[in-house]
Structure formats: structure tokens, C-alpha cells
Amino acid sequence: MVRRHDGKVAIITGASSGIGEACAKAFARSGMSVLMTARRGERLNAIASEIQANGGRAEVLVADAADRALAGRLLDAAESHFGRFDIVLANAGYGFDRPMHLMSEEELRTIFEVNFFASTDLVTHAARRLIAAKRPGHLIMTSSCLSKFSMPSFGAYAATKAAQESVCRAMRFELAPHGIEVASVHPVTTSSEFFSTSAARSGTRSAPLTDHAPKWIIQSPDRVARAILRCIERPRSEVWTSRIVQGASALFTLCPWILDAVLRREAATRCSRTTAATRE
Fold first, then answer.
1. Which of 98, 137, 241, 263 is at a distance of 20 to 30 A from 176, taking alpha carbons?
2. Which residues are catalytic?
3. CA gyration radius for the chain?
4. Phi and psi dihedrals of 148, rounded to 5?
5. What is the DSSP string of the chain?
């Protein structure tokens, strides 16, 4: 049974698909009002209309996550539409599938701008407003299981996610005296357009990760949304959707040579897939 959160207001970035869309719908079903943002206005409006048709409250702000003024605009919009905000989910971000030595400085800076700086800017601005208003709140960043261990060709992406996790961990204890909860979310492979978009952005000809990843490691965005809702109800520092991967990350930290063996095999597999795709 879904616990009700009537009267609460959530801000969600990257809400036009995947985890962001699933969270917007799940939050609305639980009684929250949601303010959604992403670049695709048509898609956002369709999601908002669906939420409203089911009796929920949703508003849209079309914007690019890299806009440095977005944090203030989002918080202002939430307070204008709903009078407040309680939960901020910094979910916007993208992947990049390319070896580090083949990435340009501009590509590296841009992925940090979107994945790390934009999300950090939003949650820190939100924290200041909550403290000034003397209200509790919940600040959440969608990180990744790759924040704990990187993979070949995902070094830049993993670095942004590790940075997010570090910020969330520190802020959790910095903001605890103010009654503000902070958490990072660590999904595994999620069945969404994330990986196909990443492949297109990276210019890779190999198949998206979801095409060859083991089925047991592929999860739906709805599963991640349910896990985030449980965190809002029972706060904790990290949200994991796979105990197996969470355990593996701990093992890799304790025994890095095991991770080395896994990554050596993954690198060889990726090389053979890329070669086959190039021949095609």
C-alpha cells in the first residue's frame, strides 16, 4: 500500500523520461504535487496531463539542466505554484560511452556541468531556502552504482556520479541539525532510453548496454521510483535497488583485484563488440 504524502511538494529534474518520469507519477499517486523540468516540453506536458487526469497536481518548467539560473527558477516556480517545496530530486544527467583518452576537454567539462554542478547547485540552493524558512526537507541526487566502481569507457560518467555521492554524504550530516535529509540513489542498469541516448551522444556503434547486460541486472524505472519513495518515508543515506550489486561494490572495495579481473574481461568483451559493429 502506498503511503500518502498529501500536501508535500516535489521538484524533479530530468522528468521527461526514465527514472524522472516514473518518480513524477509515483510521487503524484502518493498525493504529492510535482514540479517537473526537462528540455522536452511536449513530453513533460503529456506527463503532467496524465497526472492531472488521474487527480494529481503537476506543473512544468521547460529548461536545460545546464542553465546556471535554473536552480533559482525552479525553487521560485515551486513556491509560486504550490507555496512551498519539500523534496528535491536532482535526477537530470546523461551518460557518455567513450575511453577517457578519446574524450575532449569540452566533453568532459560538459558532462560535469550537467551531471554534477547542476545537481549540486540545485540541492545547495534548496538547502539554503529550507534553512531560512526553518522547514525540514529531503534532498536527493540520482547517482549510480558506478559511483562505487567504474567501467571501461564510462570513466567520465562514473566520476560525476562518485562526486555526487560524496557531496550527498557530506551534506547529510551538515544539514541534519536543520532537519533536512539527504540521500544518493544508486540504480543499476535501467530499462529506459538512457543507454541508447548515451550511445548516440558518444558516437559508438556498439549495441547499448541493455542489449547485452544480464537480465537480472536490468530494472524498470518504476522499481527505482518505489525505492526512492521508501527512502522519503524512511530516510537513509543511500538508496540501492539491487542487494547483489551493492554487495559486489563492497567486495570490489575490499578486494580490488577481483574488480580488476571483472573489468579486464569487460574491456575485452567491449573491444570485440565494437570491432564486430565496425565491420557491419
1. 241
2. 157
3. 19
4. -95, -30
5. -PPP-TT-EEEEESTTSHHHHHHHHHHHHTT-EEEEEES-HHHHHHHHHHHHHTT-EEEEEE--TT-TTHHHHHHHHHHHHHS---EEEE-------S-GGG--HHHHHHHHIIIIIHHHHHHHHHHHHHHHHT--EEEEEE--GGGTS--TT-HHHHHHHHHHHHHHHHHHHHSGGGTEEEEEEE--EESSTHHHHHHHHHT--SPPHHHHS-GGGEE-HHHHHHHHHHHHHS--SEEES-HHHHHHHHHHHH-HHHHHHHHHHHHHHHHHHHHHHHH-
Indicate whether 40 belongs to any domain.
yes
Domains identified in the chain, total number: 1
Q: Is residue 1 domain-resident?
A: no
Per-residue pLDDT of the chain (280 residues; tens, 9 = 90+): 557 899 999 999 999 999 999 999 999 999 999 999 999 999 999 999 999 999 999 999 999 999 999 999 999 999 999 999 999 999 999 988 899 999 999 999 999 999 999 999 999 999 999 999 999 999 999 999 999 999 999 999 999 999 999 999 999 999 999 999 999 999 998 765 555 565 556 566 555 555 555 565 789 999 999 999 999 999 999 999 999 999 999 999 999 999 999 999 888 876 655 544 444 4
The pTM of the full predicted model, rounded to 2 decimals, is 0.88
Is 4 domain-assigned?
Answer: no
Q: Is residue 2 part of a domain?
A: no
| φ, ψ dihedrals at 179, nearest 5° | 75, 20
Cell digits of residue 172 = 547529510
Q: Print the domain residue range for 245.
A: 9-279
| Total number of residues shown for the chain | 280
